[in-house]
């Protein structure tokens, strides 16, 4: 079981899907939880702050608000992300830039803002939410796959820079997860995807959340720069 030392946790994009489930899991373990969202709200028990991760000033303001209410941020889960899927020949520069700036650039801004406090405390947990697409590639997702792959380099560079300061940086890479998005897929397409997954099913957001809470715990203090797939075996070897 993850340790029960109460921590202050910030999860970006915590108003729905995997981010919402991660927030619920940390709350259930007794942590102080805040989520960022451009709209909507996190689960009951979470503090919700408005922030667009593409805006450094908005990220800074969100941190200040959370720190004033809950104390210094000890755990950051960089989850916020968008997609603009299309084949590369049809992909505009705006499609590419918007996805990379949100998914990769947003993670950079959010984590950078947390680091001074973590260095001072000599403790910190950074968890990037990547994707099977960042390891395996996916047609129509050159922008998304590139942004999610970039999180691995970011986590490993942070590990080399700050590993001696009690700070870990890891990547969780979900595969096909039961969300509103997958619920809208045609039945034939869903069946085809499931045939490719050794587990024979989609994962749940709570299964991803369980991995995130563990990798952020004291039990995982000697794990950093790791990529942990939560994909039912789909991406083995990648």
Automatic annotation (TrEMBL):
Protein keywords:
Oxidoreductase
Segments spanning the bilayer are none
Instruction: Output this protein's name.
Output: 3-oxoacyl-ACP reductase FabG
Protein family (similarity comment)? Belongs to the short-chain dehydrogenases/reductases (SDR) family.
InterPro entries membership: KR_dom (IPR057326), NAD(P)-bd_dom_sf (IPR036291), SDR (IPR050259), SDR_fam (IPR002347)
Organism encoding this protein: Gryllotalpicola reticulitermitis
Which positions fall inside the Ketoreductase domain? Answer: 7-180
The top EC class, named as a word, is oxidoreductase
| Record-listed E.C. numbers | 1.1.1.100
Q: Report which superkingdom the organism of origin falls in.
A: Bacteria
Q: MF terms per GO, please?
A: 3-oxoacyl-[acyl-carrier-protein] reductase (NADPH) activity
* Listed Pfam families: adh_short_C2
Spell out the SMART domains in the cross-references. Answer: PKS_KR
């Amino acid at each position: 079981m993850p340790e029960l030392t109460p921590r202050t946790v910030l999860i970006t994009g915590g108003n729905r899907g995997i981010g919402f489930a991660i927030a619920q899991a940390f709350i259930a373990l007794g942590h102080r939880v805040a989520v960022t969202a451009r709209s909507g709200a996190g689960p009951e028990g979470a503090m919700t702050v408005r922030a667009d991760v593409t805006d450094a000033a908005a990220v800074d303001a969100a941190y200040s608000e959370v720190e004033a209410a809950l104390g210094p941020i000890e755990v950051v889960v960089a989850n916020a992300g968008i997609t603009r899927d299309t084949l590369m020949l049809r992909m505009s520069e705006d499609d590419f830039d918007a996805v990379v700036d949100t998914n990769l650039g947003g993670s950079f801004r959010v984590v950078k803002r947390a680091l001074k406090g973590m260095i001072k405390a000599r403790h910190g947990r950074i968890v990037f939410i990547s994707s099977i697409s960042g390891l395996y590639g996916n047609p129509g997702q050159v922008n998304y796959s590139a942004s999610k792959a970039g999180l691995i380099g970011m986590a490993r560079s942070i590990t080399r820079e700050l590993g001696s300061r009690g700070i870990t940086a890891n990547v969780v890479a979900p595969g096909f997860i039961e969300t509103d998005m997958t619920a809208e897929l045609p039945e034939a397409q869903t069946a085809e995807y499931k045939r490719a997954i050794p587990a024979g099913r989609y994962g749940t957001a709570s299964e991803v959340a369980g991995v995130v809470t563990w990798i952020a715990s004291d039990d995982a203090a000697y794990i950093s720069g790791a990529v942990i797939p939560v994909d039912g075996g789909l991406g083995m070897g990648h």
